Automatic annotation (TrEMBL):
Residues 4-85 form the DUF7808 domain. It comes from Wuchereria bancrofti. It holds the Pfam family DUF7808. InterPro entries: DUF7808 (IPR056710). This is DUF7808 domain-containing protein.
Amino acid sequence: EGSGENAKVFCAIVCPNAHLVFHSKSLSDKNCFKFISYGLIQKDGDWYLWRSGKCLNSPKAFEIGCKFDDPFEKQFPDDNVIFKHLAARVRAY
């Protein structure tokens, strides 16, 4: 989204049906500042991590947490159920 220095790159986070997604640990990277060069956003019912500027090249790992109204294991009792959900999401785009 955007161009040049204002470009943001979005990466989908696997937190289906989450009511809250959060960044659980500080990055300690001088190129990454929460809300300025990275953040979390919900778009069309899915959650995304976005990065921009020099933070795009940061090798730091993001630790993301998800909160659900119903336990994840209840919504998706086995791997096949979650994979089917994710495959349907990919086909929609």
